Amino acid sequence: MTTNWTVKAIRDAVNSGSATAASIVDEALSRIEKKDGEIGAFLEVFVDDARKAAKDIDVRHAAGETNLPLAGVPIAIKDNMLVMGHVASAGSKMLADYRSAYTATAVARLQAAGAIIIGRTNMDEFAMGSSTETSAFQKTKNPLDVTKTPGGSSGGSAAAVAADMVPAALGSDTGGSVRQPASLCGIVGMKPTYGRVSRYGIVALASSLDQVSPFTKNVEDAALVLSIIEGKDPHDATSVVLDEPIGDNFSLDLSGVRVGVPKEYFIDGMDEDVAACIRSGIEKFREAGAEIVDISLPLSPYALAVYYIIQPAEASSNLSRFDGMRYGNRGEGAIEESYRSARGAGFGAETKRRIMLGTFILSAGYYDAYYKKAIAVRAALKTEFDQAFKRVDVILSPTSPVVAWDIGAKMNDPVAMYLADIFTVAANITGIPGISVPCGTAHGLPVGLQVLGRNFDDNKVLQVAAAFEALHNAS
Amino acid sequence: MDIDINRLATLAKLQLTDDEKAMLERQLPDILDYVSKLQEVDTSGVDAKAYLTDAVNVLREDVITLTREERDAVVAAFPKQVGGAMEVPGVFAE
Question: Is pTM, for the whole model, over 0.90?
Answer without folding.
Answer: yes
